[in-house]
Amino acid sequence: MMNPNLNIEYSEEVFTAFQNKVPIVAIETGGTFAGIPYPENVETAKKVMEQIRENGAIPAYISIMHGKIKVGMSDSEIEDYGKRRGTMLKASRREIPLILAKGEYGVMTLAATMVVADLVGIPVVSGGGLGGVHRGAEVTMDISSDLEEITLRNVIVVCSGAKSILDLNLTMEYLETKSIPVIGYKTNELPAYMAIESGIRLPCQMDSIEEVAQAYSIKNALNITSGMLLMNPISAEYAVDAKQMNTVIDEAIECSKRDNVRGKAITGYLMKYLKDKMGADSMDAQKNMIIENAVLAAKLSAKINQHGNFAE
Known about the structure:
The protein is α/β, with parallel strands linked by helices and 312 residues long. Helix content is 48%, strand content 14%. The chain contains 13 helices and 11 strands. It has helices at 12-19, 29-34, 40-54, 75-83, 96-102, 110-120, 137-140, 145-152, 168-177, 209-221, 242-258, 265-278, 280-306; strands at 8-10, 24-28, 58-65, 68-71, 89-91, 106-108, 124-126, 156-159, 182-185, 204-206, 228-231. Strand 5 (89-91), helix 5 and strand 6 form a beta-alpha-beta unit. It starts with 7 loop residues before the first strand and ends in a 6-residue tail after the last helix.
């Protein structure tokens, strides 16, 4: 559903896909372009798009460029966007209108990607890790807008669980309170971003894409307008050691307190600390996690399209 009232630009490939009702996957730019340095971010983005096409869907990276929402990006735009890493504003829901009004560039969080995907009628969103309830949130009230957005948007988000810097138990409690369906793809344990294990049991496991597509179709038939989460654990060959990762996270949290890092800056601080300490292993994990989630999202989008849930 292309909204004529906003300054939205569709790539030629995505525009054609909408016209022909070909399945599309909305992809978060934050994980690829904020989390991975140039030129690896561009290389990763091109692999993501290639894998989505090979698995039956059309890729649509969601971004803000020169004051316009981009739904799908050309190779030259991907290159330009990748080079701007570190200079672009991070856009969640509240920042989108501000960045558009100022005519600037923005890197879209998972929450912002959900906003745009739901607006234009793309049911499947591919991301890295879900934001959630931060450790110590009972004092700071620091809860990611990803959690609020999934309650508002009729999309299904494919991700590798919740980011490991979070309070994963409270994140799951929040999702349960908001009645968000959380599905483990071939697992009954919540993935912890770059690690497979969290020790937290998921409420539902599904072992086929057909089951997931059926669940989404039934949800819509019941007029349940909130979204769904499909948790896809990273492959064992790329996963980092969960115990080592949690030790580094504990160190990072202590350092953030020492440096008086608060609010919106805390996520970037903790993720940078994690990557700096774990080095190439964490970067390889992040790149492969993004690609794996994109493959699953493409297969799911194709199956949902077969069920007739492609937006009119």
